[in-house]
């Protein structure tokens, strides 16, 4: 039996145009604009950050100098008190050690001419 | 001075030495001002007593012995007392408002610019001292005269 087999063939006429292009809506500013904008924001922030760092440094300088101006005043008072206490200790020592021949009152325990501050706090004996 | 580690063998309560000072430093008084007042007057002090202070520190550089610089120290103390007395006489209102502000703000200068400006103005008009911070850039505005500072805009006021 001779018959023409049915085959898949194209539609009569033309195929419709294939829609291969994407029609996406516009999505904000361009990459270059974003980059420039970011650069602007970061520059603004960095400028103020660095300026504030400068100001902070000056504030530290002001604080340090306000303390430096007071150092001699505080040191002078402290020195007078230390001197008074050391003299009193020497007097007590002389009183206690007066019977020991060859005893040098207030002799430094260190083998140097340099002044060495006390490492033990000065205090008054209980029975004094 | 209360407890100090390693000094358990020493008495903890008897730190006062009532011995009077030797005769040659007996008449030197102590300043007796609190920290806020000293901080407030620090730059005026540096201007008023700068020479005595430098003399004293140079002497301390020669020897750390407290007995070595008593004379210079007495001069420093007398000069400081002189300045504080004069400040009390001339700029008491400005000084009080500034040190009270410092007291409330952790002794930070940047919170008390509003009170500091009249004080600096008063010190300048009465004594002629300008507040200068050594080492700051010459051509820049000093940090205490900035119109719009970054720091210190929210002071504590009670």
Automatic annotation (TrEMBL), chain A:
<dbReference type="GO" id="GO:0005743">
    <property type="term" value="C:mitochondrial inner membrane"/>
</dbReference>
<protein>
    <recommendedName>
        <fullName>NADH dehydrogenase [ubiquinone] 1 alpha subcomplex subunit 13</fullName>
    </recommendedName>
</protein>
<keyword id="KW-0496">Mitochondrion</keyword>
<keyword id="KW-0812">Transmembrane</keyword>
<keyword id="KW-1133">Transmembrane helix</keyword>
<dbReference type="Pfam" id="PF06212">
    <property type="entry name" value="GRIM-19"/>
</dbReference>
<keyword id="KW-0249">Electron transport</keyword>
<keyword id="KW-0813">Transport</keyword>
<dbReference type="InterPro" id="IPR009346">
    <property type="entry name" value="GRIM-19"/>
</dbReference>
<keyword id="KW-0999">Mitochondrion inner membrane</keyword>
<comment type="similarity">
    <text>Belongs to the complex I NDUFA13 subunit family.</text>
</comment>
<keyword id="KW-0472">Membrane</keyword>
<keyword id="KW-0679">Respiratory chain</keyword>
<feature type="transmembrane region" description="Helical">
    <location>
        <begin position="32"/>
        <end position="50"/>
    </location>
</feature>
<comment type="function">
    <text>Complex I functions in the transfer of electrons from NADH to the respiratory chain. Accessory subunit of the mitochondrial membrane respiratory chain NADH dehydrogenase (Complex I), that is believed not to be involved in catalysis.</text>
</comment>
<dbReference type="GO" id="GO:0045271">
    <property type="term" value="C:respiratory chain complex I"/>
</dbReference>
UniProtKB/TrEMBL annotation, chain B:
<feature type="compositionally biased region" description="Basic and acidic residues">
    <location>
        <begin position="1"/>
        <end position="15"/>
    </location>
</feature>
<comment type="function">
    <text>Accessory subunit of the mitochondrial membrane respiratory chain NADH dehydrogenase (Complex I), that is believed not to be involved in catalysis. Complex I functions in the transfer of electrons from NADH to the respiratory chain. The immediate electron acceptor for the enzyme is believed to be ubiquinone.</text>
</comment>
<keyword id="KW-0813">Transport</keyword>
<keyword id="KW-0496">Mitochondrion</keyword>
<feature type="region of interest" description="Disordered">
    <location>
        <begin position="1"/>
        <end position="21"/>
    </location>
</feature>
<dbReference type="InterPro" id="IPR016680">
    <property type="entry name" value="NDUFA8"/>
</dbReference>
<keyword id="KW-0472">Membrane</keyword>
<dbReference type="GO" id="GO:0006120">
    <property type="term" value="P:mitochondrial electron transport, NADH to ubiquinone"/>
</dbReference>
<protein>
    <recommendedName>
        <fullName>NADH-ubiquinone oxidoreductase</fullName>
    </recommendedName>
</protein>
<comment type="similarity">
    <text>Belongs to the complex I NDUFA8 subunit family.</text>
</comment>
<keyword id="KW-0677">Repeat</keyword>
<keyword id="KW-1015">Disulfide bond</keyword>
<dbReference type="GO" id="GO:0005743">
    <property type="term" value="C:mitochondrial inner membrane"/>
</dbReference>
<keyword id="KW-0999">Mitochondrion inner membrane</keyword>
<keyword id="KW-0249">Electron transport</keyword>
<keyword id="KW-0679">Respiratory chain</keyword>
């Amino acid at each position: 039996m001779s018959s023409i087999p049915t085959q898949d063939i194209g539609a009569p006429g033309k195929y419709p145009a294939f829609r291969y292009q994407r029609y996406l809506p516009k999505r904000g500013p361009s990459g270059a604009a974003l980059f420039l904008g970011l650069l602007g924001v970061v520059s603004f922030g960095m400028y103020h950050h660095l300026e504030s760092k400068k100001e902070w440094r000056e504030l530290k300088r002001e604080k340090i100098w306000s303390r430096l101006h007071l150092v001699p005043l505080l040191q002078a008072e402290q020195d007078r008190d230390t001197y008074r206490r050391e003299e009193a200790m020497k007097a007590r020592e002389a009183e206690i050690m007066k019977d020991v021949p060859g005893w040098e009152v207030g002799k430094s325990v260190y083998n140097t001419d340099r002044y060495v501050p006390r490492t033990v706090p000065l205090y008054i004996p209980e029975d004094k | 001075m209360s407890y100090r580690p390693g000094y358990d063998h020493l008495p903890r309560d008897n730190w006062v030495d009532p011995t009077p000072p030797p005769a040659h430093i007996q008449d030197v008084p102590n300043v007796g001002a609190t920290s806020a007042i000293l901080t407030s007057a620090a730059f005026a002090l540096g201007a008023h007593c700068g020479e005595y202070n430098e003399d004293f520190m140079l002497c301390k550089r020669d020897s750390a012995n407290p007995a070595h610089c008593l004379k210079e120290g007495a001069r420093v103390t007398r000069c400081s007392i002189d300045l504080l007395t004069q400040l009390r006489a001339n700029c008491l209102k400005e000084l009080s408002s500034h040190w009270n502000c410092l007291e409330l703000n952790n002794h930070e200068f940047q919170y008390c610019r509003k009170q500091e400006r009249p004080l600096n103005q008063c010190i300048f008009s009465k004594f002629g001292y300008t507040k200068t911070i050594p080492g700051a850039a010459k051509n820049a505005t000093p940090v205490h005269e900035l119109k719009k500072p970054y720091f210190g805009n929210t002071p504590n006021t009670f």
